[in-house]
TrEMBL record:
This is Toll-like receptor 13. It is found in: Membrane. PROSITE patterns: LRR, TIR. GO terms for biological process: innate immune response; toll-like receptor signaling pathway. Disulfide bonds join 30-36. It comes from the Eukaryota. Coiled coil: none annotated. GO terms for molecular function: transmembrane signaling receptor activity. It comes from Mytilus galloprovincialis. Belongs to the Toll-like receptor family. InterPro entries: Leu-rich_rpt, Leu-rich_rpt_typical-subtyp, LRR_dom_sf, TIR_dom, Toll-like_receptor, Toll_tir_struct_dom_sf. Keywords: Disulfide bond, Glycoprotein, Immunity, Innate immunity, Leucine-rich repeat, Membrane, Receptor, Repeat, Signal, Transmembrane, Transmembrane helix.
Length: 753
């Protein structure tokens, strides 16, 4: 049974994970400047023994950069009033890797502003009134930043006719660049010039402000290694025919506004992008305004990307009017695996998903549509969909077939809706591992839903989130709470529920709440039913008690009848036995049997022992093997330890030996016990205590001399007739310490009472 997970358990897990990193999360006033906050970084071998500091001086109304110690690792100075970076300000910070000085008032940089920062990896200069000219950004300003990988210099004041290419060309290891397009550049100007040929590691470009950005066949001719391009909402673009020639390694592109937004620029853009190796395309707020003659982006995308390599397509924050036509709707391109269409205010969505594996429709208005139809237009064919997110869609109920044919589904997110019950069918989704129903209005599951989830849990480790729902704890929902406690499904739920009158009831243990609810729901009719059940149960218990009293006799006769020994006449000691003794022991004590018993009894004294690991017949039932072994052995020796009592088969062997002595050996005792460790009498079964009272036991000694006497007594016991098995071991009472602890007469008197 899977343990149930409440909000408290979840909080404990989160706190535990958080506390493991609590040293990193504590920010304290810095010693060198009380306006700044510092936290230390755990020492790392590659960093040396010096303790490094993360320093946060953001939003402190600073006008100058404070004096910093040499062990600063990262520094945030954003949202201050800093106007300049003086020469050699950071020259002593040899471990400095990240500087954020965004949202300040710097109008220019000095040649030696970053002198000494040879290990700096990230530099953020965004949102400063810098202009793109030599006075504001000198040609040699970045010369010292030989390790820089990420530079942010957008949302500045990009007045000028060109980028600061000379300064940028010094950054040989640059991987990511955020920059504005100069406002005064003309369409004929080459934006990224020849000097940028040196940026052979540049893979990511984020374009900020621009008046107009026209991507042509030579736009990125000198940035041939670009794989990711992000164009800000403040930049209007146009992708011209032939642009794909400068995008030979493109992997992902994110676009907002097109110039002269109509069918032709978008169609041209998709045509060019389909000729590149691009795998991810993002359109955010691309069509945010309605038109009298709307164009439909999906039609353009579905047709234009057919045969392309695009696997990820995102259309978010768009106007639904310009996304899908009302009539003919083209299926998803075959290459598309992920489709994200969040925050588009969609009121209908029914698409032939083709090969889509991940569908995200979060934050739309699909509630009324999904009440009657499914999002998958073709449900008769095998779907490859694995992930569906239709959260925040104002859903009150779903058509039962909404997930029909989705056999590969693994994740369903229905959170932040208004669901009151489980109306949908996911019985075909045997691989479902997560169903998020949090933040809905669910009061309980019906029996069909519980049965459906139980069936899924047989083939998948299903988890259901029920946090922040209106779970009720009434007589009608009692079966639901019992299901939560007993099911294999992992259920996350809050430690509160609503009573029949709407009162919020807080609880810690679901089991205790169930017990309280059972008492509340007890009525007269239920009382009569319970009394009837009790009477029937009493009769069954009485019959069961009679059967239980003779259970071992019944079991013994049953297994004996199954075995090849079907003779029920009393045996005598003159009968020929296959073995001198059957050894009953727990697997934890096999070393004693292998190293001691076999050596002393078989090898030294020529007794033939029956051991289950060695002498049981393969392919035979173990119970039949045990019965046969006891029946074919003159004696049964039990190696008694605490593990012996815990072993089902050890106790089975002991009881079968008792039945053998009573019903097949004319009540002659064939059992005696060897205690390998001291065990209190109160920890022994009653039937075993009877043998102990008859002195049919011996305790294994811990000294060499005692061991000699011990094995002689075992030898004596195995050689005597069955009638003489109850020999007294008074000669070894030094080792039989159990007798000295508690008088057995007292124990039996106590048990009889």
């Amino acid at each position: 049974m899977a343990s149930k997970i409440t909000l408290e358990h979840l909080a404990i897990v989160i706190v535990t994970v958080f506390c493991q990193n609590v040293v990193l999360a504590i920010w304290l006033p810095c010693d060198f400047n009380e306006k700044c906050r510092c936290n230390s970084i755990p020492q790392d071998a590659k960093m040396g023994r010096e303790v490094l500091l993360n320093v946060d001086c953001s939003n402190r109304k600073l006008k100058d950069i404070p004096a910093l110690p040499s062990n600063v690792y990262t520094l945030s100075l954003k949202k201050n009033n800093i106007k300049r970076i003086n020469d050699d300000t950071f020259s002593q910070l040899r471990n400095f890797t990240e500087l954020d000085i965004s949202y300040n008032k710097m109008t220019r940089l000095n040649i030696f502003s970053f002198n000494g920062l040879s290990n700096l990896l990230i530099l953020n200069l965004n949102n400063n009134p810098l202009t793109y000219n030599k006075n504001a950004i000198p040609n040699e300003v970045f010369k010292s930043l030989i390790s820089l990988k990420h530079l942010c210099i957008r949302n500045v004041f990009p007045i000028g006719s060109s980028l600061p290419e000379v300064a940028l060309s010094k950054l040989k290891l640059l991987e990511s660049l955020e920059i504005d397009i100069p406002l005064s550049m003309t369409p004929r100007t080459v934006i990224f010039g020849k000097r940028l040929d040196s940026l052979v590691h540049l893979e990511t470009l984020k374009v900020g402000q621009c008046l107009f950005f026209e991507i042509k066949n030579d736009t990125f001719f000198h940035l041939v290694h670009l794989t990711n391009i992000y164009i800000d909402i403040l930049c209007v673009i146009s992708i011209r025919p032939g642009a794909h020639y400068s995008l030979t390694k493109l992997h992902k592109i994110e676009i907002h506004f097109f110039s002269n937004y109509d069918i032709f620029p978008i169609r041209d853009a998709i045509k060019e992008l389909s000729l590149t190796p691009v795998q991810a395309i993002v359109f955010k707020k691309t069509c945010s305004h309605g038109r009298e003659d709307p164009i439909y982006m999906w039609t353009t995308l579905a047709l234009g990307l057919n045969g392309s390599s695009v696997k990820y397509l995102e259309l978010t924050d768009n106007n639904p009017v310009c996304l899908f036509p009302v009539s003919k709707l083209y299926p998803a391109p075959p290459s598309l695996l992920t489709l994200k269409m969040s925050s588009n205010k969609l009121e209908r969505f029914a698409l032939e998903l083709t090969n889509i594996q991940k569908l995200i429709l979060r934050d739309n208005n699909l509630g009324n549509f999904l009440r009657l139809k499914s999002f998958n237009k073709r449900t008769e064919r095998n779907s490859k969909l694995e992930y569906v997110d239709i959260s925040e869609n104002n859903i009150y109920t779903l058509i039962p077939s909404v997930f029909q044919g989705q056999a590969e589904l693994r994740y369903i997110n229905l959170s932040h809706n208004h669901l009151q019950e489980i109306s949908f069918d996911v019985s075909q989704s045997n691989n479902l591992s997560l169903l998020d129903l949090s933040n809905n209005s669910i009061s309980a599951f019906d029996q069909n839903s519980m049965r459906m989830f139980d069936n899924i849990s047989l083939t998948s480790n299903l988890t259901i989130y029920l946090l922040n729902n209106s779970l009720q704890c009434t007589c009608k929902t009692l079966i639901f709470w019992k299901w939560i406690v007993g099911t294999r499904v992992n259920v996350f739920f809050d430690r509160r529920c609503l009573s029949a009158d709407g009162t919020v009831i807080q609880f810690i243990s679901a089991n205790k709440r169930i017990q309280e609810l059972e008492k509340e729901c007890l009525s007269y009719d239920m009382f009569i039913i319970i009394v009837s059940i009790v009477l029937v149960a009493t009769l069954i218990c009485f019959v069961g008690a009679v059967v239980y009293k003779y259970r071992w006799k019944l079991r013994y006769m049953f297994y004996l009848a199954k075995s090849k020994h079907r003779r029920h006449e009393t045996s005598t000691d003159s009968k020929h036995y296959v073995y001198d003794a059957f050894i009953s022991y727990c697997e934890h004590d096999n070393l004693f049997v292998i190293n001691d018993c076999i050596q002393n009894l078989e090898m030294d004294r020529n007794f033939k022992l029956c051991l289950h690991q060695r002498d049981f017949l393969p392919g035979e039932e173990i119970t039949t093997n045990i019965t046969n072994a006891i029946h074919e052995s003159r004696k049964t020796i039990c190696i008694v330890t605490k593990n012996f009592f815990d072993s089902y088969y050890c106790m089975f062997e002991f009881n079968m030996a008792r039945m053998e002595s009573i019903y097949s050996r004319d009540k002659r005792n064939i059992i005696f016990l060897i205690f390998l460790e001291q065990i209190l009498p109160q920890n022994m079964p009653l039937m075993l205590l009877e043998l102990v009272q008859k002195d049919s036991y011996i305790e294994y000694p811990n000294d060499e001399q005692g061991a000699i006497v011990f094995w002689e007594k075992i030898d004596e016991a195995l050689q005597v007739d069955d009638r003489e098995t109850d020999v007294s071991f008074t000669e070894t009472e030094t080792y039989c310490k159990l007798q000295e602890k508690i008088p057995y007469e007292y124990l039996f008197d106590e048990q009889e009472s």
